[in-house]
Write a structure and sequence with these properties.
Blueprint lengths: L9 E4 L2 E4 L10 H5 L2 E9 L2 E2 L2 H14 L8 H14 L5 E9 L14 E8 L8 H4 L1 E10 L16 H12 L4 E6 L4 E4 L3 E6 L2 E5 L8 H12 L4 E4 L11 E6 L3 E8 L2 E2 L4 H14 L2
Parallel strand pairs: 7-8, 7-14, 11-12
Antiparallel strand pairs: 1-2, 1-6, 3-4, 3-5, 5-6, 8-9, 10-11, 10-13, 13-14, 14-15
Helix pairs in contact: 2-3
Length: 288
């Protein structure tokens, strides 16, 4: 696989399609120094981007939460995505929309005089967790905690919030794991590095309240699917010691889709029937 900065194709950038290798930004861009960046990850199935407008709306809301108004409308972002897919002749793809404060007159913490830029790229991307999609992922326990919403806008899909995710995923991979599970600043079960988490006990589903984590679009979709299936879903605070009592577990996210979990730290889970049913139902939904 070619490096992400050295590929054929086109990326939409600030209103125009540009050759992939020319989609660059200056080393003194504010985002590179101060993490003033927000993004979305989306999947296109058979030519249709799943929950596309919801992602575009969340991108703008993330920008607002970072005091970084994005100068594009939802409709304009939607058109940009379509243009990128068409220019690259893609029908099944992963899309990344990213907005950031670029280089400008400011080079300190304050950056109001710097332009907010926007780019949309797309590429073919298979299962995020590889074989774990079928066999069940193995998760480490992250040493870091998801922060309090009093310290950072946790409802934003902001680049800076993923710093500890990168560190935790690297540590997990060094132990032979696919990912890591975070607890939050209070000690409750929170999420994986880029996915929400669900548990099953006696046929009912339990998932953390998203008051200190991102309320994922896939998470919301799966909760509604479960309720439509007649499955009871408990959105609640989950203590680490409860993990021993759950029988099944899975992760949800645009990249992860629905991925079964076989192990978290010392705790083991079955890749059970409900997990398989949810994964199959999600696959059917996104391709409908």
């Amino acid at each position: 696989m070619a490096s992400y900065d050295n590929r054929d194709g086109f990326i939409w950038m600030d209103g125009a399609l540009v050759p992939w290798r020319d989609a660059t930004t200056h080393v003194l861009s504010h985002a590179l120094h101060y993490a003033s960046s927000v993004f979305e990850g989306e999947r296109c199935y058979s030519g249709k981007i799943f929950k596309s407008r919801e992602h575009s709306e969340r991108l703008l809301e993330s920008g607002r939460l970072l005091d970084m108004p994005i100068p594009w409308t939802v409709d304009q972002i939607e058109e940009a995505k379509k243009a990128v897919l068409s220019a690259n002749n893609l029908t099944d793809a992963y899309l990344r929309a990213v907005a950031w404060r670029g280089a400008g007159e400011d080079m300190g913490v304050a950056s109001r005089r710097n332009p907010v830029r926007l780019a949309v790229a797309a590429w073919e991307w298979g299962a995020y967790y590889g074989d774990a999609k079928m066999q069940g992922a193995k998760l480490d326990i992250a040493k870091w905690k998801r922060p309090s919403p009093d310290t950072i806008p946790t409802a934003a899909k902001a680049a800076g919030l993923y710093m500890i995710c990168t560190m935790s995923k690297h540590a997990a991979e060094e132990k032979g794991c696919s990912d890591a599970l975070f607890f939050d600043y209070r000690g409750y079960v929170a999420e994986a590095t880029g996915a929400n988490v669900f548990f099953v006990k006696d046929g009912e589903v339990h998932t953390p309240i998203p008051d200190a984590i991102l309320n994922g679009i896939t998470r919301q979709t799966v909760i509604q699917m479960l309720r439509d299936m007649g499955i009871t879903v408990h959105e609640r605070y989950i203590l680490p010691e409860e993990l021993a009592g759950f029988q099944q577990c899975w992760l949800t996210g645009t990249a992860a889709e629905v991925t079964p979990v076989g192990q978290i730290g010392e705790w083991h889970f079955q890749v059970g029937q409900l997990t398989r049913d949810v994964a199959a139902a999600y696959e059917k939904l996104v391709r409908s």
